[in-house]
């Protein structure tokens, strides 16, 4: 079980090596909503005609989670979504 976070960290580090220095990027901070402990950071890198997304998220519960990416700013008050 302890191997999964290490493997994920290695894959993340390997993936970062292919992003050119100075590539346009944006960063989103993930904050937990009511009843959740999930938090983290998501990096979006523009690479030619594609976007690479690298997320580091903690506090997810076993059994699966869902993530939504929207092009519009969230309008819900923090912790109420």
What's a concise summary of this model?
With 81 residues, the chain is an alpha+beta fold. Helices cover 17% and strands 30% of the residues. A hairpin with an 8-residue loop joins β1 (25-30) and β2.
Annotate the secondary structure layout.
Layout: H1 3-16, E1 25-30, E2 39-47, E3 50-58
Antiparallel strand pairs: 1-2, 2-3
Give a structural overview.
This protein is of the alpha+beta class and 81 residues long. A hairpin with a 2-residue loop joins strand 2 and strand 3. The chain has a three-stranded antiparallel β-sheet, covered by helices on one side. It is built from one helix and three strands. It has a domain of 56 residues.
Residue share in β-strands: 25-35%
Q: Structural class of the secondary elements?
A: alpha+beta
What oligomeric state best describes the polypeptide chains here?
A: single chain
Helix-strand pattern, N to C? Answer: HEEE
- What's the number of helices? 1
Note poorly predicted spans.
1-16
